[in-house]
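Lab notebook: predicted structure, single chain.

Context: the supervisor wants predicted structures on file for every construct in the current expression panel, including those that have not yet been purified. This is the next one on the list. No modifications to the sequence; it matches the entry in the shared construct table.
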Amino acid sequence: MKTLLKSLISNVHFLMTIYNQIIPHHIFEKDSLDGYAPQLIVFPTHQIVSFKSELPLLNRSSLQYYNSNDFKNLDHSNEYNTVINKLLFSPNEKEIDTWLKDKQLDELFTYLVCSFHFEDKKIFQHVVKKLSEESDIKKNNLEYLQLLFKRDKKIIDIHFLKEIASFDNENRMYNHFKNLISKEFNEDEQTKFLNEINEVYGMKEYSLQQNDVQNYLKPGYQIIDEVNADLDDDSDDDKIYIASSSDEIANAQVLIFKNNSNSFSLWVKNDSSPFLGQKEYKKTVTKGKYFTIEYNRDIEDKYNNYNYLTFKLQDDNFILHQYSKEIYDVNQDKNLPVKTWTNKNFGNLIFEKTSYEFIEKLK
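Prediction complete. Output recorded below exactly as produced.
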């Protein structure tokens, strides 16, 4: 899964003065068809999320009131602000499973996926499945438009459409999109948009099949995550697979497949990565020619380490660019200084040779 709200987050830390109080916040924004830009304002320190239209309510007194004893006995676990903060900063698979059964939160998830192209795998698939099963296109006309386009200039979000197509096995969303375009746009626009949609859906027949990947997996290993990313800047998404053994203490396997004009081939693989599969793996984040594998490790109930392994594509090889870890001391209940190593410390280490033993020696 790619960075949460990756295409929407302005990766800058903003400061805003509200009644002479400085409150750090982040802005998540998505252009819309009519030129209106819906925004979520997130104040992580205060665990508050607000839509931009409600921002005047978030002054100093309202923040104090929200965190006062008046609310201490209320269950905040399914509130919009709590859910969004957890999704953005500390997603938990079990909590997500519970949230997906909540009808009120279902409206929130539909809004996030449609308006912000939110790509958490479970939430994304839940919303797309729900919308694909609707038989009345007029009912969800706005949602289909939001899913398909990313700007008021009516530009199709090709990357997001590819994600939808990969999950749209019965082509239900494809049919919704076709009907929508025929009703909403003029003849020239219809031709342009239908060609783009057909091209994306036509690619499905060339997509990498699960059986092809299985041929490269070690015995007893299963895929636990699949990430699509254009790692070599050729406008075609390559694939990163994380595979785990049923044995909790076995190292994960990581495979990267190169997209050669919709024909995939194994690019590189690491059969003994530095982390223990399902037990430790959290997610993989990509940005251009870089990708970062994040994993969590508990050390004898004394420390909790959150680790980041970042690789960079260089001359058709993936080189370890940086390794860092955030350390939490359980006994002292505090975070220790972050430790970071770069290629200045370990030279040009290729992806295939990045092992558990090598990482342990850095410590």
